[in-house]
Each structure stands twice: as structure tokens, then as C-alpha cells.
Amino acid sequence: MSAVTNAPTVPTFEQHGLKQHSDGDWANKAPVQTRSERFTSTNVEDFPAVTGREVDWRYSPVSRLTALTAGELNGSSYDVTSTDADGVTVGWTSREDTRVGTAGTPEDRASANAWTAFEKALVVDVSGEDAKAVHVRRSGLGGGARGAHTIIDAAPFSRALVVLENSGDALLAENVEILVGEGAQLTVVSVQEWDDTAIHLANHFSRVGRDAKLKHIVVSLGGSIVRVNPSTHLAEQGADIEAFGMYFADAGQHLEQQVYVNHDAPNTRSRVTYKGALQGDGARTVWIGDVLIGNKAVGTDSYEQNRNLVLTDGTRADSVPNLEIETGDIAGAGHASATGRFDDEQLFYLMARGIREDEARRLVVRGFLSEIVQQIGDADLEQRLQAALEAELAGTSVS
Fold this sequence. Notes:
With 399 residues, the chain is mainly β.
């Protein structure tokens, strides 16, 4: 008598009405659904050509980015200036530096192209428990396609503010790695005040250590196309990230940010707040916020939000928050997104106190965006950015 086994039946795609199509093995080409499972590589040849149908490029004007996604990039060193601060050194290091690749790996072709091309990495080394600030400035990179790599390395228990200031002309793809050692407190501010024709694609990879805190702030005001994608790995217990962003898009400008926070350890915390304003025909902003709470990240406390203020007709703001949770033992998690015009009650309150309507509207915009600027912690820079906002609003009839 033969034995009977009740082996489990493995469901097939055909059982659910799905079949392989003529364009190949459809079952093995299903889109990646989990953020952490995206393909990564430091070699540009490992990525297919960008078409705009990819999940990470679908909101971007890819036809204008071919020089950075498919072209050859100049990876040589460039002129950079920095302020002096005790415990901070700024210099260049080779590709063989062991810190290269510690914080993250490219997920898109432009990032991989920059990684493949760079010859030396700019390094900002931070040490010492006393608070300090350093400004790293670059300007006039030129119109040639360029690839770059930067490392910010905060030693354990160090404290610092590092400001990356960008201006002038550029056609740039780059990667920035941020390493935050145990117990360190680091603020990194990336300011994009490029010329009107500049194109800048940046990926920021951060690794935050045990009981360390990173405050990451992105300010995008200038440039034709600016895409800054911060990715943070909360790798050890007690790691903390506060991610802020402020952007102001004018007519024809495309400002994009794709934020990713990976909670990968117990008792980690994240707060993501991005705010933007849009004015003028063809002004476009994109914000995508991905938060992953992994199965090891018990006790996680996470919240992300994006707010967009539409000032005129003819603009478009895309806002896509995503939250993945793989453990039920968390302190809290949530997300929010809103895009709209002025709050009539705020305008009424100001106008009832004798303020003209046009000035009242500008006060609302200033108050809306100033919350982000005030997070920087550098009075001179905050004042300069407030002045830049005033210049954006000057002569504009917000409606």
C-alpha cells in the first residue's frame, strides 16, 4: 500500500488569472513593493536606461537629464572653500577610503553614474564634543556634466553644524554620505541657490549610530531642476533623525525630493517635515516620503508630513507619503500630506488689524516657510535665507 503525502500546494500566477506575456518572464518582473528591496549598485552599467516609467523617475523630467543619467561625467576635483572651525577638517580622499560606501548604495542610474565617475571624495571630518559650525561652499562648477562624492564623518560624541552651500552654474550628479557616530549630534544643511539654468541631482545617504542624532535640512530655492533625495538608515538602538525641507518653486522650475527613513533598530525615532510654496506657470514640486519600520525596530516613534502652499494658478505639487510597518510593537507611526491655497481665516485676522491684503498674504507665506528656516541654528544663514524668501515674494501678486 503506497503512502499518501499531503504536500502543500504552491499557488501559481495562473491560478489568479495572471499569465506570462510576450515581452518575457512577467512573473519575475513584478514591481518591487517594499522600499528596502530596491536594486542597488555602485556601477552605472548595472542599471537600465532611464525611461521615466521607473518608480523613482516617474515624476522627473527625464528627457532633460540624459547628460547625467546616460552621459559620461567629469569626476575630477573642483574648487571648494570652507570656514575654519576647531575639530573640523575639510579635504580630499581617494576612492579607496574605507568610508566610501559605508552609508548607502545608489538606487538609481544618475547616482550610480556619479559613483562610477568620481576620482576623489571631498571629506568633512568632525570631532570634539564642543559645538561648532563649518560652511563648505562651491560655486561655478560650469555647464559640463560632472559627478561628485562627499563624505561627512562625525566621530562618536562629536557636535557640529555642517552647511553645504551651492551656487552658480552646474550640471551635477552627486552622492553625499553622512556618518554619525555613537552619541554624536550632527546637523547637515544643504542649500541650493543655483543659477536659473542649473541642474542638480543629489542623493544623500546617512547612517546614524547608537544614541546619535542627525538633523538633516534641505533648502532648495535656485536651479532649473533640483532633485535632492535623502536616505537615512537608523542602524543602531536609540538613533534619531529629524529631516526638514523647504522649497520655493517659480515658473518653469522643477524641485523634487524623495525622502527615505529606514528604522532598522530598537527605540529609534524620526520626524520628517517638508514645506514648499509654488508660484508661476509650470512651477512643479515633488515630494515622496518613504518610512520603513523593520521587524527589529521595536519601540519606533515615527511621523512624516509634507505641506504645500499654492500661490498662483498653473502650478503642480505632487505629494506621496508611504509608511511600511513590519512589527506591531511600536510607540507610534503616522503621516500627513496637504496641498492648498491660503487660509482665509488667517488672512481675515491680519486684514482686520489694518494690514493690506497683499502684505497679509506675504506674511502668511513667510510664516509658513520660516518654521523650517528656524531649525538651522545659524543666525547669519537664517537671516540670509529669510532675505532670499523675501526676494522670491517681491513683485509677485499671490492669489
